[in-house]
Write a structure and sequence with these properties.
It contains nine helices and twelve strands. It has 303 residues and is an alpha/beta fold. It folds into two domains: 214 residues, 3-Layer(aba) Sandwich (Rossmann fold); 63 residues, no CATH class. Strand 6, helix 7 and strand 7 form a beta-alpha-beta unit. The N terminus is likely disordered. This is ABC-type transport system ATPase component. InterPro entries: AAA+_ATPase (IPR003593), ABC_transporter-like_ATP-bd (IPR003439), ABC_transporter-like_CS (IPR017871), P-loop_NTPase (IPR027417). GO terms for molecular function: ATP binding; ATP hydrolysis activity. Keywords: ATP-binding, Nucleotide-binding.
């Protein structure tokens, strides 16, 4: 198996799950050759056991950030620790504990999903073949068919089944619902929640915000190369009130017109707890409002 063949397969780590921090990013700088700087003095950290949504517009740097965590891109400056390893060193113990699924299809077209699983499984000590077979059935993917003969959505689901069966401590998913139909998105959300162990962490990069509703534990909003918000969904629900009004709301932190009326965010005091409107939150944060002062706890809030 060639270096290029392995490049998009995974990233993994031999790591003590009792360690408080799984990922530590400190003062990270990154730019592509002859391009403007993408990240400048970026800071972020994550503990174990979360499903984290990395939300951002196209071109915000979501894919690049995942590839840096996976050891596929190298920062210009700063410190980066993932599961106790420096990703760019690509130690074998690291590559056994991180699984990266890019937006584009990474599976070899001349193989079937079943055959690829047989080749891949020895690289991942906790890979669960039974779970993989069950997920292929759940996602309606023919395990015997050559991957090149599958639709784009089926190829995407085969790759997601690989990731969810890998047993890796850290799973990085780039636009996982892109190309999936409604039933495929629903099946992915349900299986993501049911399959994961408590000591696994998943970071999902997406601009399809609605696809992750009721799935995330934590949300991070990346905009213009900076992390503008990083907070637990439970804290957002405790601290903020989301609603719709037929008129302007004077004390709203952020509001915008919609077909149903004026959608708004305000500080929660005596109001009943509401479901976090991720789309409205994203629009507010990327328009420049600061949420930090309204939250009782933030993770790595930088703006």
């Amino acid at each position: 198996m060639t270096e290029n063949f392995l490049l998009y397969v995974s990233v993994i780590i031999h790591y003590d799950t009792n360690t408080l921090l799984m990922i530590q990013v400190q003062n990270l700088d990154f730019s592509y050759p002859k391009k403007p700087q993408l990240f400048s003095q970026l800071n972020w950290e994550s503990s174990t056991g979360n499903i984290i949504g990395m939300l951002g517009k196209n071109g915000a740097g979501k894919s690049s950030f995942l590839r840096i965590l996976a050891g596929l891109l190298f920062p210009d400056n700063g410190q980066l620790s993932v599961l106790g390893f420096s990703p760019e060193e690509r130690a074998s113990a690291f590559l056994q504990e991180v699984f990266f699924v890019p937006d584009e299809n990474y599976l070899p077209g001349h193989l079937s999903a079943e055959r690829y699983q047989q080749i891949l499984q020895p690289f991942y000590p906790r890979f669960d073949g039974e779970t993989f077979s069950r997920l292929l059935d759940r996602f309606e993917v023919n395990s015997q068919e050559k991957i090149k003969n599958l639709s784009f959505g089926q190829q995407k689901k085969a790759g997601l089944a690989m990731a969810l069966s890998s047993g890796c401590s850290l799973i990085l998913l780039d636009e996982p619902t892109n190309g999936l139909d409604i039933s495929g998105k629903s099946a992915f959300r349900k299986e993501l929640i049911s399959v994961l162990r408590e000591d696994q962490t998943v970071v999902i990069a997406t601009h399809l915000i609605r696809d992750l509703e009721n799935t995330l534990d934590r949300v991070m909003i990346l905009d213009q190369g900076q992390i503008k918000l990083d907070a637990d969904l439970s804290d957002l629900a405790d601290s903020l009130h989301f609603g719709i009004s037929q008129s302007a709301v004077p004390d709203a932190i952020f509001s915008q017109s919609s077909a149903l009326g004026v959608q708004f965010i305000q500080e929660r005091t005596t109001q009943a707890q509401t479901v976090v409107n991720l789309e409205l939150l994203f629009e507010g944060v990327t328009s420049g409002i600061s949420i930090a002062s309204f939250l009782s706890n933030t993770n790595s809030l930088t703006a």
